[in-house]
Design brief:
Layout: H1 2-12, H2 17-27, H3 29-32, H4 34-78, E1 83-87, E2 93-96, H5 98-103, H6 120-130, E3 135-144, E4 147-157, E5 163-169, H7 171-178
Antiparallel strand pairs: 1-2, 1-5, 3-4, 4-5
Length: about 180
């Protein structure tokens, strides 16, 4: 008798305990068999907690995997021998590799060109951000803290509409070209 009710209540568990007790009353076991009703409600509550725990576990595992993926990406961009900036869709720096953050600690939160002024570097980043392109590369120039940097700048589009900018200094190459 109880097995039939329990299998039925497992099906309605995701709807919530309030609906389950109404179903118990409708089936007539609440008034006639209080022990069965209590057992069924306790079982349904246990099953509901089990489903919630599975959902919570899945959520925790998904966030853990996202954190691992972010850490892998951070290690990757920290290994790039140059300046890497992560720029959101509004044109603000949200992250970068160790090289750029050590050299320009005030960079996070600033917008493109805010620290460097008008330069071929800033124009290239803005143009890329506003274009629909997935990738672009150019030689650019920028002055930071009084130092002129000649860069090979490569940009890639991120899934959220932002971009990653990888900038390799080529000052020696530019000097050699002039000689």
């Amino acid at each position: 008798l109880v097995a039939d009710y329990i299998s039925y209540y497992i099906f309605v568990t995701p709807l919530g305990l309030g609906l389950i007790s109404e179903v118990l009353y409708f089936k007539g076991i609440s008034n006639h068999h209080p022990l069965y009703a209590f057992f069924a409600i306790a079982t349904v509550s246990s099953i509901a907690l089990h489903f919630q725990n599975r959902q919570l576990r899945s959520l925790i595992l998904a966030r853990l995997e996202a954190t691992r993926e972010k850490n892998r990406m951070k290690k990757f961009i920290d290994g790039v021998p140059g300046f890497v900036g992560i720029i959101n869709s509004e044109g603000r720096y949200v992250d970068g590799n160790k090289t750029i953050l050590n050299q320009f600690p005030q960079l996070i939160g600033t917008s493109i060109g805010e620290l460097s002024g008008s330069s071929s570097y800033s124009r290239f980043l803005r143009e890329f951000l506003n274009s629909g392109k997935e990738f672009a590369t150019a030689e650019t120039e920028v002055v930071f803290n009084g130092d002129l940097y000649h860069l090979v700048t490569s940009c890639g589009r991120l899934d959220d509409g932002g971009m990653i900018s990888i900038n390799i200094p080529i000052n020696e190459l530019v000097t050699a070209r002039k000689e």
